[in-house]
Specification:
alpha+beta, disordered N terminus, two-stranded antiparallel ribbon, 10-stranded antiparallel beta sheet
């Protein structure tokens, strides 16, 4: 883009030079006057200006390259920090649930312990009272053999009841101590994770601050050329090349999976001819789902992320350039979900698109998710519809967080909105 710009500048200066030199040439032929020396000086000055402009353009190109490299590194740092923060937040959420459950268990055990202590207290009090009164009555009532047998049976029963209550109380107390120790352990783990979360948040904030500084410099130096048609076409070309390369690398696997899916469909067709049915295995169903393409657009797919549509497919950007996909606004760090089953074809940083995840769905269909903060999947991973594949970001030099979403069919971009449900 800068090279083209420099050529335009140089071309314009040369036209100006020709316009300036033409009257000087006539003057030389008309008469041998000091104007010839003046023209030579002007020529020399213009040549110096051209050299300075070329030098300035080259320096600007170098600065732009350095800033883009710096931006890529900073956004990679943000991706790592964002993914770590996401993982820690998930662990904290799980831990909070476990602590809540433990607290409820401890509350129940506390209540149970109080009930058992009250029961034991009543039993001991009753035994004491009966020992003072009823015990004497039992001793003097009836003949001696009956008295001894009755006393023995009575105290055996009282002792067994007390022993059972004491055993239950001891078990409840043991469980209570165990649960409290577990709760203390979980709370210590929670405290550690909260500290880790704060560290990761600071790291993310630092990386985002550095990125913002770099982005400001980049915008300052490239504001006039930021939406230039040439750059956008270059980005599009790079994306096409990247996808084509990934497709070539994945072609053998895709062809093998397509053959396997065709065999399953053939089994179903053969069974139908015979008047029976063939039920595919779970693996076969997954294979058919991720290689069967997106089908006809009928609002069957889920939205990759919910939010306002900032740009629609076909909206004009500038001049003859229009959007090849749609941009959906969403808070930074929001989960981006796959719109259909498939396999991850690409997860990489691309100029103009930032961190990109591409999922292939078979039959030449693929979905693309750009401007991400972090990728949650790797190349070759199988994904299900609704599975998080990335986190919303503003990579690629975007001014606000959001998701760039494309659907490609046979290598060509198509309007993705008809596939998305309400």
């Amino acid at each position: 883009m800068f090279r083209r710009h420099s050529r335009r500048v140089i071309h314009g200066i040369r036209i100006l030079l020709a316009a300036l030199l033409l009257p000087a040439s006539f003057a030389v032929f008309a008469a041998n006057t000091p104007s010839a020396d003046t023209s030579k000086n002007e020529l020399k000055n213009l040549q110096l200006n051209i050299a300075e402009k070329e030098k300035s353009v080259k320096e600007q190109q170098g600065k732009r390259t350095n800033l883009l490299t710096q931006l890529k590194k900073q956004e990679s740092d943000i991706a790592v920090a964002g993914r770590e923060l996401y993982s820690t937040q998930k662990s904290l959420k799980k831990l909070d649930g476990e602590i809540t459950t433990l607290a409820a268990d401890i509350k129940q055990l506390d209540l149970k312990q109080k009930t058992q202590r009250a029961l034991l207290s009543k039993q001991l009090d009753a035994a004491f009272r009966q020992g003072r009164h009823q015990g004497i009555e039992l001793i003097f009532k009836g003949d001696e053999g009956q008295r001894e047998e009755r006393i023995l049976a009575y105290y055996t029963y009282i002792g067994a009841a007390r022993e059972k209550t004491i055993t239950e109380l001891e078990e409840t107390t043991r469980q209570l101590h165990s649960q409290r120790r577990e709760e203390q352990k979980k709370r210590a783990e929670q405290s550690s994770l909260l500290g880790k979360q704060q560290t990761e948040k600071k790291k993310l904030d630092t990386a985002q601050s550095a990125r913002k500084s770099t982005l400001t410099k980049l915008e300052r130096s490239l504001k006039a050329d930021q939406k230039d048609l040439l750059v956008m076409r270059e980005n599009e070309s790079q994306l096409r090349n990247k996808i084509a390369k990934a497709e070539r690398e994945a072609k053998a696997r895709a062809e093998r999976e397509a053959r396997e899916a065709a065999k399953v469909r053939a089994k179903q067709a053969q069974a139908k001819k015979k008047g029976s049915t063939y039920t595919p295995t779970q693996d076969e169903r997954s294979l058919m789902s991720r290689t069967g393409g997106l089908g006809r657009p009928a609002g069957q797919a889920m939205w990759p992320v919910r939010g306002p549509v900032l740009h629609r497919f076909g909206d004009r950007i500038s001049g003859e350039l229009s959007w090849k996909g749609m941009v959906i606004g969403a808070p930074e760090g929001t989960q981006v979900k796959a719109v259909a089953d498939g396999r991850v074809l690409l997860a990489d940083w691309l100029q103009g698109y930032g961190l990109v995840v591409v999922v292939e769905h078979g039959k030449g269909d693929m979905s693309l998710y750009g401007y991400n903060q972090s990728a949650l999947v790797n190349v070759g991973d199988q994904v299900k519809a609704g599975q998080p594949v990335s986190l919303v970001g503003s990579s690629g030099g975007q001014e606000r967080p959001g998701l760039y979403f494309e659907i490609r069919r046979q290598g060509r971009t198509v309007n993705p909105q008809p596939w998305l449900g309400r």
